[in-house]
Amino acid sequence: MARPTALLRHLLILELIQAHIAREFARVKAQMREDGLHIIERQDGGMDIRIEFRVGDHYDEAVFMRKMLEAEAANRAKRTGMISR
Q1: Which parts of the chain have pLDDT scores under 50?
Q2: Are 10 and 81 in contact (CB under 8 A)?
Q3: Which of 58, 18, 63 lies closest to 38 in space, CA to CA?
Q4: Beta 58-65 vs 37-44: how paired, if at all?
Q5: CB-based contacts of 43: which residues, under 8 Å, 6+ apart?
Q6: Would you say which domain of life the source belongs to (predicted)?
Q7: pTM of the predicted model, to two decimals?
Q8: Tens digit of pLDDT for each residue in 55-74?
Q9: In sequence order, what are the residues at sequence separation of 6 or more whose Cβ sits closer than 8 angstroms to the Cβ of residue 40?
Q10: Whole-number Cα distances in Å, 72 to 2, 58, 75, 76, 79
Q11: Residue 81 three-state SS
């Protein structure tokens, strides 16, 4: 078993990271509103995520490969110390 203080420290650090993520999420949403970017539809597939969006009067869609998103998220989490992989 890990030391209790080490687990408590890890918990507190994760809480702070979660607060930073919540602020960043709000900042990105505000930037989307400021830019007039609206998500029309989102489809989560096994291999990818497809998002239909609108910027002003222009409609478009984007496809993001799930594996690439997962790899980038894991890399960022690893760099911040959130995961130990």
Answers
A1: none
A2: no
A3: 58
A4: unpaired
A5: 49, 50, 51
A6: Bacteria
A7: 0.76
A8: 999 999 999 999 999 999 98
A9: 52, 53, 54, 59
A10: 29, 28, 5, 6, 11
A11: coil
| Helical spans, DSSP H, in the chain | 4-35, 66-80
HEC string for 8-21: HHHHHHHHHHHHHH
Two structure tokens written together for 48: 């990818």
- Distance (Å, whole) CA 29 – CA 50: 18
Q: How far is C-alpha 76 from the chain's CA centre?
A: 10
Please answer whether residues 53 and 60 qualify as being in contact, where contact means their C-beta atoms are separated by less than 8 angstroms: yes
The DSSP bridge partners found for residue 59 are 54
